[in-house]
Specification:
10 helices, Heme Oxygenase, Chain A, globular
């Protein structure tokens, strides 16, 4: 089964993750700035965790998957630098403690480091596809958040997600729906955390 079929097979969970009240609030401007800033700090922590996961996956991935994984790892390094600039401009503390949803996602990534490569690739595709669809649904974004929505919906990101799909489809996971469900649940918890903090 192609990984691109997973969202339709889990339509309710997918909608929860990609059309969340937090995202609708970014689109219409109703999300408090404090909630958004909390989410930014926690997302920076998540990106650092994802970089570690992806670097380790790259080291054990088969040759055909290496180029897309390497490109993604470089993009994550650049994303962390962008977060540092944002934090300086917005007065955010990127060393703030990880909140429970962030710790939970980190634990999931740590466990997936021990999973077989096909399962880990499916998980990574799910993470990035969720992100792409979530922010695409928030377009164009309220003026206060528009630069962020635009940042996460650039055409190159869609191309990267397509490359991950090809890598995952070339090495099908034994239980793709199980790992898809875990990642989507972690995404929902992450959005929930931001709203609760705001």
């Amino acid at each position: 089964m192609p990984v691109a079929d997973l969202p339709a097979r889990r339509a309710d969970a997918w909608r929860d993750a990609t059309d969340h009240p937090f995202l609708r609030g970014v689109r219409d401007g109703s999300v408090p700035v404090a909630a958004f800033d909390t989410w930014l700090v926690q997302d920076a922590r998540f990106v650092a965790d994802l970089l570690r996961f992806q670097a380790r996956l790259l080291a054990r991935a088969p040759r055909p998957a290496q180029a897309v994984l390497a490109g993604g790892a470089v993009a994550l390094v650049e994303e962390l630098a962008w977060f540092e600039e944002l934090a300086a401009g917005r007065g955010l503390d990127l060393a703030a403690p990880a909140l429970p949803a962030t710790r939970g996602y980190a634990a999931l990534l740590a466990r997936l480091e021990g999973a077989d490569v096909p399962t880990a690739l499916t998980a990574l595709w799910t993470i990035e596809r969720t992100y792409l669809d979530a922010w695409s649904g928030a377009l164009p974004g309220a003026p206060v958040y528009r630069e962020f929505v635009e940042h996460w919906t650039v055409p190159g990101f869609a191309g990267y997600v397509a490359g991950l799909a090809a890598a995952a489809d070339a090495l099908p996971a034994a239980e793709p729906e199980a790992v898809f469900d875990e990642v989507v649940a972690a995404e929902v918890a992450f959005w929930d955390m931001a709203l609760a903090a705001g």
